[in-house]
Design a protein that fits this description.
seven-stranded antiparallel sheet; 948 residues; 31 strands; D-amino Acid Aminotransferase, Chain A, domain 1; 5 domains; Rossmann fold; globular
C-alpha cells in the first residue's frame, strides 16, 4: 500500500521522458473523468525493465498523498482546491510562499475606492520545483498487536508517518529514520549496533551491524517475530526471507546484508527495490569504514583540526547525527557536539520555496542541512561563508515542540494543543516557532506559526534550532540569560518533547510552564508516593521493581492481580494486568525495555477490579521555581501564589483496567455523586499547587467502594484536552499557552467553568479492521488510533451519537448474542432485561442462558464452537445477529472467544466487551427507539462568547 511505502520526492530513478509521459497521462485522465476543479491523485506503475506504464488507480479528490506533497513542496493543494471549487482560477490565486511586491494603489472606476496593487512574483498557476530531497517513512505500531501479521500488503497498516528534508537522499534518509522516534538515530551506527562493541579494530563490513533483535523498526521490542537471543549471524535462508517479504524492519535487514558483503544485485533480486536506492544505502555503509579509521579520525581533532573538520562535515552531509558519531568514536554525545562546533561545523537552514530559489520566498518554512563553505569575493577581501537562508526579526520568540509522527498513544490530540499555542503567541505579539516532523498535521502548515522548522525531534536537532534562533548558546544561569528565545513549550506535544526537556534545560534553554523537576516528580514513582503521603491522598498499594526478584516480592506483598508497567511511557506501552507469578515472570522477561528512559524501573500496582475510573483536567498558574516567565507585575511567589481551575471531570464508561485512551468517557459525569466530584476537584487542586503547575495538568483517579485513589498525574496537556475544550466551549490549550508565557488566569479574565447543561461523550476508534484475526479485547495497553465525540442534552443519545461517529451503528431491533464471564452474569441481567423488553431476541451460550432463565428472561440457547453447529459464527456469517455482548474469560486469537470477536469485527457487527459498555449501549438503543436524535451546530450549545 502506498501508505506503507517509503516515499521520495522528487523522482530519483525515472527518466524525464517517463516523467513527462505520466504528466501527460495525468492531465488526460483528469479531463476524461471530468474533474473540472480541485485536486486529483493518480497512481502509476512503471515496469523498470521495459518502461511500460499502467494506471493503478485514480482518486478525483484530495488524498493522503496530497498532504505529503503540500508539505514537501510548500504548495497548499487543499487550500488551492477549495478556492477553485468556489470559482477562482489558478492564475487568479497567488503563491503564498513566494514574496509579493506592492506597486502602489489602483483606483476602482466604478466605486471610486482604491486598493493596493501587488506585483505577484508567481501565481498558483505553476508546477512546484524543489532543489532538495524529501523522504516520507511510515510509522507502524505492531508492538500493540503482537498477534498481527506484519507482512506489508495492499491493506494499509501504518498509523502515522514522518517526513524529512535534506539536500541529498542520504541526508534525508538518515533524518527520516531519526524522525521516526524508534530509538534509531540514523541508518545504523547507534546504540542498537551491538557489533560496534564486538571488536576493537575490525572492519565493520566483516560483521553484521545488528543482532536479529535490533532490526525491529518500532521501539526496542522485536516485532518481526525474532527472539532476543536469536542466532548470530542471521542464517542466510532467514535473511533471504526477510529481504523478500516486505515488513517494517526490512530497511535494517538491507543494511545487515550490505554489511555482510552482499552485492546490490543480490539484494535487488530479492527486494525488487531500485538499485539506485540500494547504491545510496551502500554508500552510507561504505562511508563508515573501520573502527581503527574512526579512532584515527577522532585523534585528528588535536593534531590536524582541518582534516577533522573535513571528516566531520562529510559525515554531517551524509546525515549522520551526533549520537551516531559518538557511538562510533566511543565518546559522550556532548563531547562530540562540542568538537563539532569547535570545528566550525554547524547546520544552515534553507527555505522551502516551491520554485527552487527562482523567486524570493516570503514564508519562513525551513529545513536544516550541512553545506561546505564557499569563498565569497568582496571589495575588501575574500570571505569564507555558508549560505544560510534563515531570516530573523528582533521580536521575542517562543518555540513549540510538536509530537512527531502519529502513533498509538500520541496522535493529533497533541497537535491540536501545539496549534493553539501558536495562536496564543500570535495574540500576545510573540513570534511562534514550530518544530515538528509530521506532514499530516496542522502544526506543520506554513501559515500556522511564524517560523516552521521541519526537523527530527531529537536533542541535537532541536537544540540546533534553539541556538540559531537565540543568536548563540544559552546561559545556564537564568538570571544572565539573554537572547531572542523567551522559552520552549514542551507540555503540548506528548511524551516526545517531555523526553527532551531535561537535556534542553541543562543546555540552558528556558522551559516554559511547569518545571522539569515537577515533570520528573510526577513520573518518578518514589517522589510521587512521597508527595501523595505529604498531601494525605490515597493511591493503590504499589512498589518499584528494578529486577524480577523485586517484582515478585512486591506482588506477593500487595496481592494479585497487579498492574505492571514501565515508567516514563505513553499510551500504556507494555502495561499489563497479571494474575499470578507465572504471568509476572513472563512479563518481566518480555516487556522491560519499553520505557523511553534508560534504566527506568518497573511499576507494580495493586489492580482495583471493577473500580470506576475518572479523568480530571485542570489549568493552573502557579509560579515554578527557576523560571524567568512570571505573571506580569508579580515577580515573587510570595506575592502571587497562583490558583488552579478544574476544566473538566470525565467519568469513564469502561471500568478501570482499560487504558484511559481506549475508554469512552462522559462530561459531565453520569453516575458520580456531588460529594465525590467535589473531592476529586479538591484533590486535583492540591496536586497542582504541590507540583507548582503552570499550564495544564491531568489526573487519573479510580473510585472503589466510595474511596478515591490517585492513579497517576500528568503535569502536561493530556489527550483529553481537545475533547474538554469542545465540550466546554473554551480553548483551554490556548489559555494555558498564555499562562505559560507569563500571564495569570486573573489577568486573562478566566474563571472556573461550570458543568455544561449538555452531555458530551468521547468514543475511541480502533484499527482492528486492518489486522484480521487479532483479538479485539481491551486492556491496560492503548490500541486506539483516534477518537470522536457525541453531544446531546441526554447521556443515552450523546452516547449513541458517539457510537455512530465511531462507525458502530447501534441496532434498534433484531437479535443480540450474550456470553459473559461468571463474574459479570449478575450485572448482565438488567442489560438483558432492557433489550428483551424492547423487542430484541436474545441468544446465549449455556452458562449465560441459565443465568437469564433463572432471572425470568427468555433467551435461545445456542451451541459453543466446540459443541457443533449452528453456533454463533454461523449466525454472524449469515447476518442473523445484530449485536454481540461478550466479556472475556480467555483472550487471544486462538481461543473460541477471540475468533468470535474477530469475526464480529470482520462482519461489522456491533461488539461490546464490557458490562458497563453494554449498559450504556442498551440505554442508548432504548433512547434511539423512543426519542430518535437530532442535529444542531456546536455553537448553539454555547450561547455566550468564550473569547480570551
Amino acid at each position: 500500500h502506498t501508505g506503507d511505502s517509503i516515499t521520495v520526492a522528487p523522482i530519483q530513478t525515472l527518466t524525464d521522458k517517463e516523467y513527462q509521459r505520466m504528466r501527460d497521462a495525468s492531465i488526460a485522465i483528469i479531463r476524461a473523468v471530468g474533474v473540472e476543479t480541485g485536486g486529483s491523485n493518480i497512481q502509476f506503475g512503471v515496469n523498470p525493465k521495459t518502461g511500460d506504464m499502467v494506471v493503478i488507480e485514480m482518486n478525483p479528490r484530495v488524498s493522503r498523498s496530497s498532504a505529503l506533497a503540500s508539505k514537501a513542496t510548500g504548495f497548499p493543494i487543499a487550500k488551492i482546491a477549495a478556492k477553485l471549487a468556489v470559482g477562482y482560477t489558478l492564475d487568479e490565486l497567488p503563491n503564498d510562499i513566494t514574496s509579493r511586491k506592492r506597486t502602489g494603489r489602483l483606483s476602482d472606476q466604478s466605486t471610486g475606492n482604491t486598493r493596493e496593487n501587488w506585483d505577484l512574483y508567481t501565481s498558483a498557476c505553476f508546477e512546484p520545483t524543489i532543489d532538495y530531497c524529501v523522504i516520507k517513512i511510515p510509522r507502524w505500531t505492531f508492538e500493540k498487536f503482537p498477534d498481527a501479521d506484519e507482512t506489508l500488503t495492499t491493506q494499509m497498516k501504518s498509523v502515522g508517518e514522518a517526513m524529512a528534508i535534506g539536500r541529498t537522499f542520504k541526508e534525508a534518509l538518515q533524518k527520516g529514520i531519526r524522525s521516526m522516534e524508534v530509538k534509531r538515530f540514523g541508518f545504523g551506527l547507534d546504540k542498537n549496533d551491538k557489533s560496534l562493541n564486538r571488536s576493537a579494530d575490525a572492519s565493520l563490513a566483516a560483521r553484521p551491524t545488528a543482532r536479529p533483535s535490533d532490526v525491529a523498526d518500532t521501539e526496542d521490542k522485536t516485532t518481526q517475530g525474532e527472539s532476543t537471543d536469536g542466532a548470530w549471524p542471521i542464517p542466510e535462508d532467514k535473511l533471504r526471507r526477510k529481504l523478500a517479504i516486505p515488513s517494517q524492519g526490512r530497511l535494517y535487514y538491507i543494511r545487515y546484508a550490505l554489511k555482510m558483503g552482499w552485492t546490490i544485485d543480490q539484494i535487488h533480486e530479492l527486494t525488487h527495490i531500485d538499485p539506485w536506492f540500494l547504491a545510496q544505502m551502500k554508500e552510507l555503509t561504505d562511508f563508515e569504514g573501520t573502527k581503527s579509521e574512526a579512532a584515527a579520525h577522532w585523534e585528528m581533532r588535536q593534531s590536524t583540526p582541518d582534516k577533522f573538520a573535513k571528516v566531520m562535515r562529510a559525515a554531517k552531509r551524509h546525515g549522520y547525527s551526533d549520537v551516531q558519531l559518538a557511538q562510533v568514536w566511543d565518546q559522550p554525545v556532548s563531547v562530540v557536539r562540542d568538537a563539532r562546533k569547535a570545528a566550525g561545523v554547524s547546520p544552515v537552514y534553507k527555505l522551502v520555496d516551491t520554485c527552487a530559489a527562482e523567486f524570493e520566498a516570503a514564508t519562513p518554512y525551513y529545513y536544516s542541512t550541512y553545506e561546505s563553505p564557499f569563498v565569497q569575493v568582496t571589495d575588501q577581501s575574500p570571505i569564507t561563508t555558508t549560505e544560510d537562508e534563515i531570516r530573523l526579526t528582533d521580536k521575542p520568540k517562543i518555540i513549540i515542540i510538536g509530537g512527531g509522527p502519529n502513533r498509538i498513544g500520541q496522535g493529533i490530540e497533541f497537535d491540536y494543543c501545539c496549534v493553539q499555542a501558536a495562536f496564543a503567541c500570535k495574540e500576545l505579539g510573540i513570534e511562534s516557532v514550530m518544530i515538528n516532523s509530521n506532514p499530516e498535521t496542522v502544526s506543520t502548515d506554513y501559515d500556522t506559526s511564524d517560523l516552521l522548522f521541519f526537523e527530527p525531534l531529537t536533542h541535537e536537532d532541536v537544540l540546533n534550532v534553539c541556538e540559531r534562533l537565540n543568536g548563540g548558546p544559552f546561559s545556564r544561569d537564568a538570571e544572565r540569560s539573554a537572547g531572542l528565545v523567551k522559552g520552549v513549550i514542551v507540555q503540548f506535544g506528548g511524551q516526545t518533547p517531555l523526553n527532551l526537556a531535561r537535556g534542553l534545560m541543562e543546555a540552558g534553554v528556558p522551559i516554559l510552564g511547569t518545571s522539569v523537576d515537577s515533570l520528573d516528580a510526577a513520573g518518578d514513582r518514589e517522589k510521587f508516593r512521597e508527595l501523595l503521603q505529604k498531601l494525605n491522598l490515597k493511591q493503590p498499594a504499589n512498589g518499584i521493581a528494578r529486577s524480577v526478584a523485586e517484582a515478585r516480592t512486591i506482588a506477593k506483598r500487595i496481592g494479585y492481580p497487579v498492574l505492571v508497567r514501565p515508567s516514563f511511557v505513553l499510551g500504556g506501552r507494555a502495561m499489563e494486568i497479571v494474575s499470578d507469578e507465572e504471568q509476572l515472570n513472563h512479563y518481566m522477561a518480555n516487556a522491560v525495555e519499553a520505557s523511553t528512559i534508560a534504566d527506568a524501573p518497573i511499576l507494580v500496582d495493586k489492580f482495583l477490579d471493577n473500580a470506576t475510573e475518572v479523568d480530571v483536567d485542570c489549568i493552573a498558574d502557579f509560579d515554578p521555581v527557576g523560571l524567568a516567565a512570571r505573571p506580569q507585575g508579580r515577580p515573587s511567589t510570595d506575592e502571587y501564589s497562583g490558583q488552579a481551575f478544574i476544566i473538566g471531570v470525565m467519568e469513564h464508561i469502561e471500568e478501570a483496567g482499560i487504558h484511559s485512551g481506549d475508554s469512552a468517557c462522559a462530561l459531565p459525569p453520569f453516575s458520580l455523586s456531588k460529594e465525590i466530584i467535589a473531592q476529586l476537584k479538591d484533590q486535583t487542586r492540591q496536586l497542582a499547587a504541590a507540583l507548582k503547575v503552570r499550564g495544564l495538568m491531568n489526573v487519573q483517579y479510580a473510585i472503589k467502594d466510595g474511596e478515591i485513589y490517585v492513579i497517576e498525574v500528568n503535569p502536561r496537556a493530556s489527550r483529553t484536552v481537545p475533547f474538554v475544550s469542545k465540550a466546554q466551549g473554551q480553548p483551554f490549550a490556548k489559555i494555558a499557552a498564555k499562562v505559560m508565557a507569563g500571564r495569570s488566569l486573573a489577568e486573562l479574565g478566566i474563571v472556573e467553568p461550570t458543568p455544561p447543561k449538555h452531555v458530551s461523550v468521547k468514543e475511541v476508534v480502533f484499527p482492528f479492521a486492518k489486522f484480521p484475526g487479532v483479538d479485539v479485547i481491551l486492556g491496560p495497553e492503548m490500541r486506539s488510533t483516534g477518537e470522536v465525540m457525541g453531544i446531546d442534552h441526554s447521556f443515552p443519545i450523546a452516547f449513541a451519537k458517539s457510537q455512530i461517529a465511531a462507525g458502530t451503528v447501534l441496532p434498534t431491533s433484531g437479535t443480540a448474542f450474550l456470553s459473559v464471564r461468571e463474574g459479570d452474569k449478575k450485572d448482565l441481567i438488567p442489560v438483558a432485561r432492557m433489550l428483551a423488553n424492547h423487542g430484541f431476541n436474545l441468544l446465549a451460550t449455556a452458562g449465560t442462558h441459565k443465568a437469564l432463565v433463572d432471572a425470568g428472561i427468555h433467551s435461545t440457547r445456542i451451541s459453543k464452537l466446540a459443541e457443533g453447529r449452528p453456533n454463533i459464527k454461523d449466525y454472524i456469517k449469515n447476518g442473523q445477529v445484530q449485536l454481540l455482548i461478550n466479556t472475556p474469560t480467555r483472550k487471544g486469537p486462538a481461543t473460541d472467544e477471540g475468533q468470535i470477536r474477530a469475526l464480529a469485527v470482520l462482519n461489522k457487527v456491533p461488539l461490546v466487551t464490557t458490562i458497563t459498555g453494554a449498559s450504556a449501549a442498551a440505554k442508548a438503543i432504548i433512547a434511539l427507539q423512543e426519542e430518535g436524535w437530532g442535529v444542531k451546530p456546536l455553537q448553539e450549545y454555547f450561547k455566550t462568547s468564550n473569547s480570551v
